[in-house]
Amino acid sequence: MSVRRLAKEQPASFAFSKATKAKADWWIAKYPAERKASAVIPILWLVQKQEGWVSEPAIRAIGELLAMPYIRVLEVATFYTMFMLEPVGSAALIQVCGTTPCMLRGANELMAVCKSRIGPKQTLSADGRFTWEEVECLGACANAPMAMINDYYFEDLTPENMAQIIDDFAAGKTPKPGSRVGRTSSEPEGGALTLTDPKLYDGSAAKPIRKLPNSEPVTA
Ligand code: FES
């Protein structure tokens, strides 16, 4: 785990957009008034969606909105690595998994591509369009090596298709996420070998409903 600190250069101010504020209010309404601090994580996420990253003025604004000490919001923002504390690329934030299964399947080669095309890790590219970093396991180990790019997983990657994905983002395209060898979820290459009966998924195998005396129907 790297040390996570706020960016050295900070904007002078932060303001919630109308859309962000409306969503923040929706989250706050889910909790009792005296517990509205419980909405801090979704609101940090909304702010990140609005700005691309979480700045120090934004942390203060969230603290004011939730009646929380700023330090408490800062603690959350610096603890969870999903919150970006520096500006990130406008086209793509590439998070390459470097944990053991992905590393054994070629993560280092993917990171070499990122380095050669974008520059040093955790550094905004010269044109401001790309950032890449190494992250810990993203829970898609069966589809290693993989990377999360913006909000989506790209799996079964090779150096060649990682380079293509970066080129596509650079050209303003939106590459399709998912497996690069055509897998659905984490099934074996070539298709599923178990649980292949379509009846498992059309509801026909569900147990009948029985009714207990003086009660609502329940599943048998
Ligand atoms: S090790 Fe890469 S997703 Fe788990």
Automatic annotation (TrEMBL):
Alphabetical UniProt keywords: 2Fe-2S, Iron, Iron-sulfur, Metal-binding, NAD, Translocase
One of the record's GO cellular component terms: organelle membrane
Residues at which [2Fe-2S] cluster binds: 97, 102, 137, 141
Gene3D superfamilies, A to Z: Glutaredoxin, NADH-quinone oxidoreductase subunit E
GO molecular-function terms, A-Z: 2 iron, 2 sulfur cluster binding; active transmembrane transporter activity; inorganic cation transmembrane transporter activity; metal ion binding; monoatomic cation transmembrane transporter activity; NADH dehydrogenase activity
Region annotation (Disordered) ranges: 173-220
Organism: Brevundimonas basaltis
Catalytic reactions on record: a quinone + NADH + 5 H(+)(in) = a quinol + NAD(+) + 4 H(+)(out)
Co-factor note (free text): Binds 1 [2Fe-2S] cluster.
Pfam families assigned to the protein according to its UniProt record, in alphabetical order: 2Fe-2S_thioredx
Organismal lineage: Bacteria, Pseudomonadati, Pseudomonadota, Alphaproteobacteria, Caulobacterales
PANTHER family: NADH DEHYDROGENASE [UBIQUINONE] FLAVOPROTEIN 2, MITOCHONDRIAL, NADH DEHYDROGENASE UBIQUINONE FLAVOPROTEIN 2, MITOCHONDRIAL
Endpoints of the signal sequence: none
The family this protein is said to belong to: Belongs to the complex I 24 kDa subunit family.
GO BP: any one term: inorganic cation transmembrane transport
Highest taxon, organism lineage: Bacteria
SUPFAM superfamilies the record matches: Thioredoxin-like (SSF52833)
InterPro entries per the UniProt record, alphabetical: NuoE-like, NuoE_dom, NuoE_N, Thioredoxin-like_sf
UniProt entry tagged with the keyword Translocase: yes
Protein name according to UniProt: NADH-quinone oxidoreductase subunit E
Known cofactor(s): [2Fe-2S] cluster
